């Protein structure tokens, strides 16, 4: 079962990264983190964890797609 905090943090992380990609404004992630931290350190920590997880996933998927495109077995 996913906690309410994780559900909200994951949704906010997704929206922040979508906004960052759409606008090119890399500060949005930190701005939201600051807002969350003023009221809930728990939510802020969960949000930042989801940001890191989503960024890591994107890098991994990019690498895998690149390797698939090249037909590499490295």
Explain the overall architecture:
The protein is an all-alpha fold and 74 residues long. α1 packs antiparallel against α2, α1 crosses α3 and α2 packs antiparallel against α3. The model has no long low-confidence stretch (mean pLDDT 95). It has three helices and no strands. 85% of the residues lie in helices and 0% in strands. 12% of the residues are buried.
Quick summary:
This is DUF3562 domain-containing protein. By secondary structure, this protein is an all-alpha fold.
SSE arrangement, N to C: HHH
Number of beta-strand segments:
0
Number of helices: 3
Shape: globular
The total tally of domains equals: 1
**Uncertain parts:** none
Question: What structural class do helix, strand and pairing data support?
Answer: mainly alpha
Beta-strand percent range: under 5%
What is the residue-mean pLDDT, rounded to a whole number? 95
Computed CA radius of gyration, to the nearest angstrom: 15 Å
Q: Determine the N-to-C terminus distance.
A: 38 Å
* Helix residue percentage: over 70%
């Amino acid at each position: 079962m996913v906690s309410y905090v994780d559900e909200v943090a994951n949704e906010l992380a997704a929206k922040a990264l979508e906004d960052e990609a759409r606008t090119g404004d890399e500060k949005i992630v930190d701005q939201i983190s600051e807002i969350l931290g003023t009221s809930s350190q728990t939510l802020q920590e969960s949000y930042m964890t989801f940001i890191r997880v989503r960024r890591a996933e994107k890098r991994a998927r990019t690498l895998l797609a690149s390797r698939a495109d090249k037909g590499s077995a490295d």
